[in-house]
Amino acid sequence: MEAKSVVVGVEGMTCNSCVQTIEQHVGKMNGIHDIKVSLEDKNAVIIYDSKLQTPATLQEAIYDMGFDATLTDANPQPVLPDSVFLTIPAQPALTSKQICSALLKNKGIVDVKLSSDQKTAVVTFISSVTNGKQIIQMVPGVDLNISAPEATPGTCEDSGWSQASSVVLRLKVAGMTCHSCTSTIEGKVGKLQGIQRIKVSLDNQEAVIVYQPHLITAEEIIHQIEAAGFTASLKKQPRPLKLSAIDLERLRNTQARGSEAALKENSNVNDAKTVVFRIEGMHCNSCVLNIQSAVSALPSVTSVVVSLEKKSAVIDYNPDLINVDVLRRAVEAVSPETFKVSLADEYENAGLFPTLASPLKSPHPVWKDAGQPLTQVVVINIEGMTCNSCVQSIEGAVAQKAGVKSIHVSLANRSGTIEYDPLQTCPEELRSSIEDMGFDASLSAKTELPVATAQPSPEAPLESHRAKPPAKTSPAGQEAKTVSKCYVQVTGMTCASCVANIERNLRREDGIHSILVALMAGKAEVRYNPAVIHPSAIAELIQELGFGATVMENCGEGDGILELVVRGMTCASCVHKIESTLMKTNGVLYCSVALATNKAHIKYDPEIIGPRDVIQVIKDLGFTTSLVKKDRSASHLDHKQEIRQWKRSFVVSLVFCIPVMGLMIYMMVMDSQLSDAHAHRNMSSEEMETLHSSMVLEYQLLPGLSVMNFLSFLLCVPVQMFGGWHFYIQAYRALKHRTANMDVLIVLATSIAFIYSFVILLVAMAEKAKVNPVTFFDTPPMLFVFISLGRWLEHVAKGKTSEALARLISLQATEATIVTLGPDNVLLSEEQVDVELVQRGDIVKVIPGGKFPVDGRVIEGHSMVDESLITGEAMPVTKKPGNTVIAGSINQNGSLLISATHVGADTTLSQIVKLVEEAQTSKAPIQQFADKLSGYFVPAIVAVSVVTLFAWIIIGFVDFEIVEKYFLGYNKSISAAEVIIRFAFQASITVLCIACPCSLGLATPTAVMVGTGVGAQNGILIKGGEPLEMAHKVKVVVFDKTGTITHGTPEVMQVKFLVESNQLPRNKMLAIVGTAESNSEHPLGVAITKYCKKELDSETLGTCTDFQVVPGCGISCKVTNVEALLYRKNKMVEENNIKNMTLVKIEENMDESAQPALIIDAELPTTVTSQKYSVLIGNREWMTRNGLLVKNEVDKAMTEHERRGRTAVLAAVDGVLCALIAIADTVKPEAELAVYTLKSMGLEVVLMTGDNSKTARSIASQVGITKVFAEVLPSHKVAKVKQLQDEGKRVAMVGDGINDSPALAMANVGIAIGTGTDVAIEAADVVLIRDDLMDVVASIDLSRKTVKRIRINFVFALIYNLIGVPIAAGVFLPVGLVLQPWMGSAAMAASSVSVVLSSLLLKMYRKPSSEKLEFRARGQMRHKSPSEISVHIGIDETGTGSPKLSLMDRIINYSRASINSLFSDKRSVNSVVLNEPDKHSLLVGDFGEDDDTAL
Question: Is residue 144 very low, low, confident or very high in pLDDT (cuts 50, 70, 90)?
């Protein structure tokens, strides 16, 4: 139970009667201990039980009484309770349960606990509400136990009494994997009230706990361990230490003496005695710990040392408080109660004697000073020490650490014994500090012996003085219910050890249940108790470890969402049944079922439960259920609906437009004939007018209404209504939001034309005009025809631009075959399920020709897989057990079983689709400019249109001849004013029609869409318009070295034999070295083993024993069973000899410098006798330390290799130096061409690496880079990029996305390369799916092409508007350029379509092929000499730079370049030999070693 205090502000109280009313009403509520209402302060202070009430319910209770209540403090304060001990009589009037319930009914009583013997009750109460005397009166017959004064439980005063009734609990704890787990449990449980001592054993998977049953129960302890994420169960029922009533009484009475007695004891320390017991029946350290923890729990015992070897226990105790017999019984009572205890022979008669001063144990009694510094002893096993210098270095380094009192390291026992202060350091810290020095350290089982134990547990006295708020010890059940999950974005992680560091440190924190850190995604998923800790505090904890951390807002992304159709529900009770059952299911977070639609919406935690399990739960209730079918067809991308709509609109407009055009053409023809007749036959104007009116179409149906106008009106109305319906809606919406778009212009143009014509017609009919007015009824149908045609074509084209994305989406399989496997992978059953029902960990079967439904790992089968649609890799990829597969790729020939690792939205394909979708919706900066322009465009055009109208009216009235001359179909029958107004309207409507912001708006997005789509098809994922546009502005490309320019894994470059082959044959040497390194986990060791296996063409090697590693030096071991391996190869050797002879001949022809002396294998051994070889592999220092002399020539060869950036390793067999192995991280074959091509594109190329300057210079010379930043830490890479940016350069950073992520984020364009499935998506702007440096060239090239296309589109759009609008306004009238409105709308449609078609030309883009680029670069590429490369060390700009070239050097360089170009053909042959040395040539002495250039 937990008492808390809250202050509630109360408004509206007028008198003391209000105060009493509130106090009475709230005081009666369940769980209220006390309430005090103040009329002056207008508030109520309430002490309540936090399990039964919350501040909100109290506020509501006061509010319901008619007062305004406000919470002045959102966080209620915990109230620290006091305790009193009650003695229950032997024959009480009430049972113990009745006493408890009687006490708990009273206000102020927080908790009542009974001791195991039912004779004492511990009452926890709030002192401000009640006191000890009142408590006695509450229950008749109980006495206040004077021996225990009123004090907070856990303080030093009552600890003596409470320990007397201690209980030893032994628990089985499952799920512990490392010492971090044990320290988590010890830390969590050790802090609980009533726990005196806890020891958790990882080896025995158990916990031994000494606790006080009147303060805490075994169930609560188990709950706390389970809340920490482990499962705990009772090994044995907890047993109290068996002490007689007299002993208990005596122990209790010691308490009565209080602190005075303690002071007396202090002055009389020498009264303490020591006894030595002989103990039979101890098996392991766990027994030792049990006895130590149980006996030291007795208040009269000051120290216990139990020895397993000597089968003895040395106990220091106070003879005034306890005797030897009681101690003996106490030891015998320790679980499992099988120990036989007797006094040791030499002490049989001695009984009691003064204490022995032990180096580990201080004889001070319990009460000396609870605050004194405590010490503990830990034993750490240390592997890898070779001599006394190791011992001294460990002792020297650890002794300087804070909290370490003393350290003794034993070389013989391979262990270190450290005495330390547990307040300042812990065993794990000490262990890791030894590991940091390069030794393997592990905590010994006999660890943490307490020293100078001021109390049995070092935690207890500290905790009691700290007055912890009780919130921390809330019951586990409550915690488990309130577990929340949050995601934290973590930056700055470089490798798996960063992940381990974060996980280990955060697991120790209070309130954190579990943490899972993903290195690639840079994300941590944390489950925590919101009552104890909140996400921002978690982020701070990560920041304190030296990483960047921000809480991700969209926390729900880790939850799975399931939409189901549920059939068979009949009423609300069915709904309730499903919802309640699902909510009880572990892992279901939320569930909502709708009866009307038969749908269920379920949120679940995919780590705990999967969609199939949820469906099964519903099926078990008797309902049928299926997934809501999702539209996977990418129909939102193909614009089908819009295409249909605009096609329909075009057809409707066209049907009515054709007759209108017919009428118009007829009138134009007739008018031109009339004007001809007027010119040639000299007809008078009157004759012409009569002839005009006698025409069929000019015949007046009513006065003022001609057949022509009537037909035009009839044809125009449906088009205006149905054809223009969509435009009107869109224009209305735009105007409602105070914006003006294209539709507004179209609606203005057509509406003005229609209304103007309609009004003129009405006026003519009203005036009964003889002459028919000229109308614009022909304009709207023709406008709509051209606009809807343009929109239709535009959407067809847009559908084409997103084809790439639609194709990606369509790759997703819809169904998966899930199989159940028995022992030995025997197939038991298989079933077809929807792909959305596949869960993590499922075994999925993929048949030949089938698509992989999810990402996974192959567990059985061999096949070739076509991944071309995802990675762009044209060749099928071989897959065998252990390989990863990508969803959407196609299985070609073999059947595979895969284990699902990523499902649903987590698959690579889904991530790629999401990336491309986001890219296509994100705007490039140039597009934002276009959008802004479009905003001003429409009002400007309307203004131009109005100006045009008035300008032509004025011009017409001033000089009518101009209008008369250029007005088509002018005849005298129409009045001049009408002609002027009609002409002015025609010009202004044409301006509205021709102006089109659409083409401006389409210029960028269509090009970006096509560009990103084409990129995705070529394995280049570009995240949006911004990086696409930025990439073409890049001036500097910075390459990371490891994993980007190089493969990232070391390979053996050369093996040089230092002994004659008759002493130790080549194959035997390789077999011995390979076997020796097969136990090593070091990358260099792995490289050597891999090389030897490849050379010997064998998957297995010999046997390695006595393997020892000395970090930073090398290895030593014994190797056997090598002969058997070589004997198996005997049959092949002869053939090999023949093959090798021919190889030698070919090589001699190709290059005379090769001397294949050691290629031919040794003669076959006749018999197999297993021999043991002693092997040493390592650096010079390791050989010297083992007494081997490294000759000068060998040393020189090593130095030369090191100069070239390789690691040189020596191998010795049976005390003789046999081989020099040169290992290096090899450069990717395409790196040199990529660097050359980038340079030829005008870009500066820089190499940045954390490696040493020698290696960096060597790699740079191989790929042709002249500027190098070496020895740069990951954190400094960011600073380097910033430095380049500050020089005004736009920087592209190319990295493998793991430790480069901060620099990738800082660069203008971050390009993550070769990260394949675990795309380092967050930091980079461009992700290259394939591990190919030529894609860097392609991405920059694609960016340049796309931006060029965008510019062409803008030119199209702007030129068109800049020229079209003046023509429409009649500026070019004198030249004879006049436009009708329908011509304007046709031109407008053409502009939009032309822009989209221009963008579609990007689909023709092809990646620059390596062959073409190689051909172009032939003879131009060459390795740089070291003097040409400037190397800058660390963060400083000043480099070790290239020395000033002497005249001689320059001449040599120049001549080298000239000779290069002369021998360019030969160079192409040699370069192959250089870049990928033949495996035999590697083994032959120093072939081509200095041959850096192609000379």
Answer: low
* Separation of alpha carbons 1358 and 31, rounded Å: 76
CB 865 within 8 A of CB 877: yes
Query: 772: Cβ–Cβ under 8 A, 6 or more apart, which residues?
Result: 693, 698, 700, 704, 705, 706, 708, 709, 764
CB 1136 within 8 A of CB 1163: no
pLDDT tens-digit map of 408-461: 898 888 889 998 888 788 888 888 888 888 888 888 764 444 444 333 333 333
- Quickly tell me which residue has 């900066």 as its tokens: 925
Chain-wide mean pLDDT for the chain? 76
- Name beta bridge partners: 890: 851, 866
Non-local CB neighbours of 1198 within 8 Å, separated by 6+ positions: 1180, 1190, 1208, 1210, 1220
Task: Work out the pLDDT band at 1483, boundaries 50, 70, 90.
Answer: very low
User: Residues 82, 1040, 1161, 1225: which is the catalytic one?
Assistant: 1040
Would you call the peptide bond into 336 cis, given omega within 30 degrees of 0 as the criterion? yes
Give the integer Cα–Cα distance in Å for 103 and 132: 12
Residue type for 1446, please? S
Task: Please state, in angstroms and rounded to a whole number, the distance separating the CA atoms of residues 1486 and 1154.
Answer: 9
Across-strand partners of 1177?
1115, 1211
Lowest mean pLDDT among 120-134, 351-365, 374-388, 666-680: 351-365
pLDDT at 1456 (0 to 100):
52
Q: In what order do the strands lie in the sheet with 827-834?
A: 827-834, 815-821, 843-846, 896-902, 855-860, 884-885
> C-alpha dihedral over 860, 862, 863, 865, to 10 degrees?
60
Instruction: Write the DSSP symbol of residue 596.
Output: T
pTM above 0.90, yes or no: no
DSSP state of 46: E
Quick count: other Cβ atoms within 10 Å of Cβ 933?
16
Q: Note the pLDDT of residue 300.
A: 78
pLDDT tens digits for 805-825? 677 677 788 889 999 988 887
Do residues 660 and 712 touch, judged by C-beta distance below 8 A? yes
Q: Report strand pairing: 1309-1313 vs 1326-1328.
A: parallel
Per-residue model confidence (pLDDT) at position 729: 86
Q: Is 1161 marked active-site?
A: no
Task: Please choose, from the candidates 356, 347, 357, the residue with its C-alpha nearest in 3D space to the C-alpha of residue 327.
Answer: 347
If you write DSSP's letter for every residue of 1419-1486 in order, what string do you get? TT--PPPGGG-EEEETT-S-BS-PPPPPHHHHHHHHHHHHHHHHTHHHHHHHHHHHHS--HHHHHSTT
Cα distance between residue 89 and residue 1284, in whole Å: 86
Coil, helix or strand at residue 1346: helix
Q: How far apart are CA 617 and CA 578, in angstroms?
A: 9
1152-to-1146, 1302, 1482 alpha-carbon distances in Å? 10, 50, 15
Distance CA 279, CA 311 (A): 5
- Strand segments, DSSP code E, in 1187-1316 are 1207-1213, 1216-1227, 1244-1248, 1267-1270, 1291-1295, 1309-1313
CA atoms within 13 A on the CB side of 229: 18
On the question of pLDDT at 368 being above 80, the answer is no
pLDDT digits (tens, 9 = 90+) for 465-483: 433 333 333 333 443 457 8
Cβ–Cβ under 8 Å, residues 281 and 439: no
Q: What is the pLDDT of residue 246?
A: 47
* Interval 1091-1145: pLDDT, tens: 999 888 888 888 888 888 887 788 999 998 888 777 776 656 666 666 666 555 5
| DSSP for residue 151 | B
